[in-house]
Write a structure and sequence with these properties.
The protein is mostly helical. It folds into two domains: about 30 residues, no CATH class; about 110 residues, no CATH class. It has six helices and two strands, in the order H-E-E-H-H-H-H-H. Strands 1-2 form a two-stranded antiparallel ribbon. Helix 2 runs antiparallel to helix 4 and helix 2 crosses helix 6.
């Protein structure tokens, strides 16, 4: 059995670095220092291959917005130009432009949602189901882990609509 002073010397040898944690316990009268890993709540994403697949899926979903955004932006601009040239209205008719922009925004949003849902349903969901089954993970644990990664926001938006029956809900 050590004296308290010897115990303190022993503990001083195992002081953790910044951000690390040590678990100190007594076994058979001796102090034992062990590294302590805190739970991060990111189970399932610790696997680099699975994390890479999730990032790729999120990026592919994000890229589905590019075409509708550009088409809506360009069609809005030329629609406003055509409206002013054909009708001959000046700045007084700017409220028509606002109406045209609102219709284009709604159409673009619906087009983007359609493309996201289509890609998720046909490509990403089957891949996720296969990987979750292969790794014996819980679907909701993976969703919770993805929620902690802001870079996977596009994927999280689709996963939040994923129901038990395998269909995505509409909102």
């Amino acid at each position: 059995m050590n004296t308290p002073f010897e115990d303190l010397e022993y503990l001083a040898d195992y002081l953790p670095d910044e951000g690390e944690a040590m678990l100190v316990s007594r076994r058979d009268g001796e102090l034992v220092c062990e590294p302590f890993a805190q739970e991060t709540g990111r189970e399932g994403i610790a696997d680099p291959e699975f994390y890479g697949r999730l990032i790729q899926a999120s990026e592919r979903l994000s890229m589905q917005s590019t075409l509708p955004l550009w088409v809506c932006l360009i069609s809005c601009f030329w629609g406003c130009v055509a409206l002013h040239v054909i009708t001959g209205i000046g700045w007084a008719g700017a409220f028509f432009d606002i109406g045209l922009v609102m219709m284009a925004l709604m159409g673009g949003y619906c087009w983007i949602r359609y493309r996201h849902q289509n890609m998720f349903r046909q490509e990403i969901r089957p891949m996720l189901e296969r990987e979750i089954r292969r790794r014996s993970l819980q679907k909701y644990a993976v969703i919770g882990a993805i929620r902690q990664h802001p870079e996977m926001r596009s994927l999280m938006d689709e996963l939040s609509l994923w129901t038990e029956e395998g269909r995505t809900t509409k909102y």
